[in-house]
Amino acid sequence: MQPLMDQYGRVATDLRVSLTDRCNLRCTYCMPAEGLDWLPTDQQLSDDEVVRLIGVAVGRLGVQEIRFTGGEPLVRRGLVDIVRRVRDLDADVEMSITTNALGLAKTAASLAEAGLNRVNVSLDTVRRETFHEVTRRDRLDDVVEGLAAAEAAGLGPVKVNAVLLRGVNDDHAPELLAWCIERGYQLRFIEQMPLDAQHGWSRDEMVTADEILASLSTAFALTPASEPRGSAPAELFTVDGGPATVGVIASVTRPFCGDCDRVRLTADGQVRNCLFARTESDLRVALRAGASDDELAERWLTAMRGKAAGHGIDDPTFLQPDRPMSAIGG
Ligand code: SAM
Ligand code: SF4
Predict the structure, then answer these.
(1) Which ligand 1 atom sits closest to the C-alpha of 163?
(2) The pLDDT value given to residue 118
(3) How far is CA 109 from CA 80, 86, 106, 186, in A?
């Protein structure tokens, strides 16, 4: 076993696998209304190829956690089968999905039975009209049903991810937290990042961690959680003395790159050593040319060595990656 170590000594043990760049929502901070030019099918890894590369990561490179994402992972037809095959490869690897939960009500039980451990559901507001405005689809009920089904199927602790947008839902934070606490979901707010396809992000417009915490503090007493954070991106706070907690993932204003343990595999088989990397390492071509597992592992190790120390969003020379979040795998 050779760990995926970079030149700064960080070891990646958490692999985010994008299963598709397609999505059935159009969140304004992620995609334009008309969608994007989706990957041609022949460039997308097949189910066999995805499972093979995960096998290399888990079997040879010390990866301990797999998160399926996208685009929307639930639109990938082979998802349940991929989960089952990865579980067959390794009984202990922690497996979760990040999803918008459309259709989760139907698949949660099969996913749990196939060996999925947990879900992270994206939900930015519980007000129907605002949900429609942010996602450009009137599908709040599906998300609420999906969340309940995930909890009932044992895919907990269910985590909810929310992005706040100034003038849209930035005053909904306390309401969303109360809603999540009532249902036993763990809410985390994510600072908006410069990863939208439209390049519409601006530092002045984004809602900062300080603002999120100030807004929550109007309704709840927050205290920094006592357990060590480690490589977890969320800073955790105990709500009203606990046991409920709320998290803030402040990638922009309080970066945590020094503790990063993540690596990404895109739906077309590129290793990305950072969300904000401007280069990728192609495993698909090598895999289709007949590379052995050892050769694939070697390429992966090389890709990790070049990981930058930090994302550099505050650097005046910062350039947004060419691919948006939905194509990288959030
Ligand atoms: N479709 C799935 C979903 O929405 O959960 C998975 C993919 S989505 C790209 C993964 C996460 O990235 C979601 O929680 C979403 O809110 C977040 N996200 C998308 N664009 C973002 C941005 N520009 N800044 C911060 N988070 C973003
Ligand atoms: Fe789709 Fe997720 Fe992007 Fe929303 S954030 S458009 S659900 S990929």
Answers:
(1) 16
(2) 98
(3) 10, 17, 7, 20
Amino acid at 143: V
For residue 163, the ligand 2 atom closest to its alpha carbon is 5
What is the CB < 6 Å shell around ligand 1? 23, 29-30, 69-70, 72, 98-100, 122, 161, 163, 190, 192-193, 195-196, 325-326, 330
CA of 21 to the centre of ligand 2 (A): 9
Annotated domain spans of the chain: 4-328
Residue 318 pLDDT greater than 90, yes or no: no
Which pair of tokens denotes residue 320?
A: 């947004």
**What would the pLDDT profile of 98-151 be if each residue is shown by its tens digit?**
999 999 999 999 999 999 999 999 999 999 999 999 999 999 999 999 999 999
Q: Is the pTM of this model over 0.70?
A: yes
> Residue 266 is encoded by which pair of tokens?
């895109």
pLDDT at position 121 = 98
- Estimate the share of the chain in helix, then strand, then coil, as percent rounded to the nearest 5: 35, 15, 50
Which of the four CATH numbers 3.30.200.20, 3.40.50.10490, 3.40.50.720, 3.20.20.70 does domain 4-328 have?
A: 3.20.20.70
How far does the centroid of ligand 2 lie from the alpha carbon of residue 194, in Å? Answer: 14
Query: For ligand 1, what atom is nearest to the CA of residue 196?
Result: 23
